[in-house]
């Protein structure tokens, strides 16, 4: 019965399968170089073969954690909170963001958009994946689009996704880390020819920080 009660709380977004939480420097996209507190939520069925946090996929391996506890920890470190995964929109983000906002914290999310958008967000980073495309209104809501580039075909995908976003969305191409030496020159050349795009790098990996 206790397990059933806990899962009911997870389904309502009052508990979340917490993989890890940490204070660091944002390494990617528009806010790179700024301090932020990261909440990494377990659970993802998008299945990117190059994912560097595959241990996040199985939500059952990460303890259901009361969002009151999560928010209490976050508020001690930063006024900017980044919720990532896994795929955080697997779960209802409404209760978590309500409590974060109650502490006057800025809420950011990094998501593939594979599930309907929930929660109240100050910044939405949409990073769509071919395996499971974004759904619902997230193209209209996204502040930045970040497409991971593994090969040249991803540039076509990037343009298809950019065409669906709102006019104010900032567009980024980011080399997949394992093939960065191969694809970065291609991305640089593409951005120079198509300056509506910007280059995003995983600067935290160059800095050797989480």
Automatic annotation (TrEMBL):
The gene is queE. It comes from the Bacteria. Its EC number is 4.3.99.3. Catalyzes the complex heterocyclic radical-mediated conversion of 6-carboxy-5,6,7,8-tetrahydropterin (CPH4) to 7-carboxy-7-deazaguanine (CDG), a step common to the biosynthetic pathways of all 7-deazapurine-containing compounds. Belongs to the radical SAM superfamily. 7-carboxy-7-deazaguanine synthase family. Keywords: 4Fe-4S, Iron, Iron-sulfur, Lyase, Magnesium, Metal-binding, Queuosine biosynthesis, S-adenosyl-L-methionine. SUPFAM superfamilies: Radical SAM enzymes (SSF102114). [4Fe-4S] cluster binds at residues 44, 48, 51. GO terms for molecular function: 4 iron, 4 sulfur cluster binding; carbon-nitrogen lyase activity; magnesium ion binding; S-adenosyl-L-methionine binding. It catalyses: 6-carboxy-5,6,7,8-tetrahydropterin + H(+) = 7-carboxy-7-carbaguanine + NH4(+). Substrate binds at residues 25-27, 40, 84, 210. Homodimer. One of its GO terms (biological process) is tRNA queuosine(34) biosynthetic process. Residues 31-210 form the Radical SAM core domain. Its cofactor is S-adenosyl-L-methionine; [4Fe-4S] cluster; Mg(2+). The keyword Magnesium applies. Pathway: Purine metabolism; 7-cyano-7-deazaguanine biosynthesis. Binds 1 S-adenosyl-L-methionine per subunit. S-adenosyl-L-methionine binds at residues 50-52, 86, 127-129. It is an enzyme of class 4 (lyase). This is 7-carboxy-7-deazaguanine synthase.
């Amino acid at each position: 019965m206790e397990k059933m009660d806990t899962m009911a709380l997870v389904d309502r977004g009052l508990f979340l399968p917490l993989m890890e939480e940490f204070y660091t420097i944002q390494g990617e996209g528009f806010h790179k170089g700024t301090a932020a507190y990261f909440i990494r939520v377990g659970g993802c069925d998008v299945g990117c073969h190059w994912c560097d946090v595959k241990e996040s996929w199985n939500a059952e391996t990460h303890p259901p954690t009361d969002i009151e506890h999560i928010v209490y920890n976050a508020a001690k470190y930063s006024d900017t909170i980044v919720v990532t995964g896994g795929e955080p929109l697997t779960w209802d983000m409404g209760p978590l963001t309500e409590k974060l906002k109650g502490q006057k914290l800025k809420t950011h999310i990094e998501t593939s958009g594979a599930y309907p958008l929930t929660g109240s967000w100050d910044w939405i980073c949409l990073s769509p994946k071919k395996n499971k495309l974004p759904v619902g209104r997230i193209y209209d809501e996204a502040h930045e689009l970040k497409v991971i580039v593994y090969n040249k075909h991803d540039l076509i995908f990037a343009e298809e996704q950019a065409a669906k976003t709102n006019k104010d969305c900032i567009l980024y191409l980011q080399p997949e880390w394992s093939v960065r030496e191969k694809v970065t020159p291609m991305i640089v050349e593409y951005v120079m020819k198509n300056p509506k795009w910007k280059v995003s790098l995983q600067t935290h990996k160059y800095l050797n920080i989480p």
